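debug: dumping io for the single-chain case to check the tokenizer round-trip. Nothing else runs in this session.
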Amino acid sequence: MVTIPHIRSFLEKTAEGALVTDRECRVRYWNHAAEQLLGVCSTEVVGRPCHEVLRGKTLDGRPLCSPTCSVFSRLTEGKGVRNFDMQTTTHSGKVVWLNVSSIPVPSTPKGRYLVVHLFHEIGKLGKIRQLTQELYGIVGGLGDTPLQIEKEVECTAEGQPEIPLSLPLSKREREILQHLAEGMDTKRIADRLYISPITVRNHVQHILEKLGAHSRLEALAIVFRPRAH
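debug: decoded output
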């Protein structure tokens, strides 16, 4: 059987963020990489419920983490769990996108488990591609979209998704769409661009109208649609 000290000796050396939970889904260990990634010290999280620490959401913003953790339940029942993507926020409020792998570890007494969650940040471009793949089924169900972008997603020098020049968007609308792609909400975009939230919402509405989209996520799916092969 494996104990927390055994796990700690391994996880403290990895570059992956890592946390270990017990059978009550409380955090028993939080490594240095997790501190660096999410900006929260181990002394602030050890002993707390995992769902309160990670506060995970799905790619489209729905709650993922809860007191009745489906990942823990499946693992302790002997069922596999594929690695998955989720969004959360750092201590400073920045939205980050994580890929998470979860591993059950037999513990004592017999029949009980610890769960190791390993996570790392996924790049903005990877996030957009993942998001559009999941959402495009919804977009496709709405019929032909007014703008069919048959272009592989390009990146700027800073690694940001490149918005095709063929789109009829103003410079400001492109800036706002770029920030939406980074996961920013209305307030953060307003703060970044030194404009009011109302102005941001007006620009977003114009973007939706020009793209024939019904939501911000659908707009991203249209703009960053993967090229057909």
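debug: round-trip ok. The radius of gyration is 20 Å.
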